[in-house]
Amino acid sequence: MGNPSAAVPPAKPPDPKIAIQYGILIKDAEAVPTGQTVYNPGDTINVTYDAINVSYEVLTTFYGNDLATDINPGRALDIVSFGFVAQDLAGNVVVAIRGTEGILEWLQDAKFLAIKCPFLAGAGFTEDGFTAVYESLRVAQDPASKRLVDALPGLPFPRPVASIIITGHSLGGAVATLLALDVAANTALGHNLAAWTFASPRTGNPSFADTYNQVVPNTIRVANRLDLVPKLPLPPLYDHILGIYELNPMLKVKLDILCQHHITTYLHLMSLQTGGTVLPLDQGCVF
After folding, report:
1. Which residues fall within 8 angstroms of residue 118, CB to CB, at 6 or more apart?
2. The pTM is what?
3. How many CB atoms neighbour CB 256 within 10 A?
4. Which terminus of the chain, N or C, has less C-beta within 10 A?
């Protein structure tokens, strides 16, 4: 079967099946094949959900320094895999960015310091922890290797690039927001770009959000109403980008911070809107 997604996101409200497609890729970024530590170039990732059956070829895994917190400042010294870049048979490229367990420690820090957006003059301020993670992203574990945003245009795509989708969950949603703006503003890949984020916190101040909305208008920001992470940092110092696609967990998900935030919860809630197969919650998260 073919890929149901178009080169750019569908008209709002978005198709939950396409949201599931990108959510599954994010979930895959959190787990790798048995016996491997990362996805390797040439690996195949198959995304299936009812009528969706899409095969992606991995081009590269990318790495970065994990999110530092007051509870665990040494986390910033850990170089970890954050996701992969892959392309489907139609030429659509997806950059899938996972979250981190450190997001709960970030919630407890409650500092949310802001710094000037480092890659686009006049784009306001961004949260310092997210920005540090974003700036550290590389296509190899060597800190001297090429940054992800700089490497993207030169990757050995097996077929012409039809579109680029940048997607991420939690911390990965904030990082995806930064990457989408950087790619759109500073590379040749920005002409047919879209972003899909899940459970993303606010990434920058109102000036940043305004700039982002103008430069990356094709954005869908999926947020569970009861998920605490998308509610922080608080306005007016921080503001959300546009493109909200809100999920209502009703009384179907356990009232627990992690349960409301898991990517599996987001996949479950989106699947309830498709009229098709219902994807399961994590064990222990059923209300």
Report:
1. 126, 131, 135
2. 0.93
3. 14
4. N
CA-based nearest residue to 61, from 40, 46, 42, 43: 40
State the maximum Cα–Cα separation within the chain, in Å, rounded to a whole number: 48
Helix extents (H) in the chain? 16-30, 103-109, 128-136, 148-151, 171-186, 206-215, 257-261, 263-271
Residue 8 has pLDDT above 60, yes or no: no
Give residue 250's Cα distance to chain centre: 24
Q: In angstroms, rounded to a whole number, what is the distance separating the alpha carbons of residues 109 and 131? A: 16
Place of tokens 């030429």: 91
Name the token pair of 259: 């349960």
Taking only the tens place, the pLDDT of each residue in 170-201 is 999 999 999 999 999 999 998 899 999 999 99
Distance CA(125)–CA(195), nearest Å, equals 20
- What are 205-222's pLDDT values in tens digits? 999 999 999 999 999 999
Q: How many CB atoms lie within 10 A of CB 141?
A: 14
66 backbone φψ class: left, alpha, beta (φ>0; ψ -120 to 50): beta
Instruction: Count Cβ atoms below 10 Å from residue 162 Cβ, excluding itself.
Output: 16
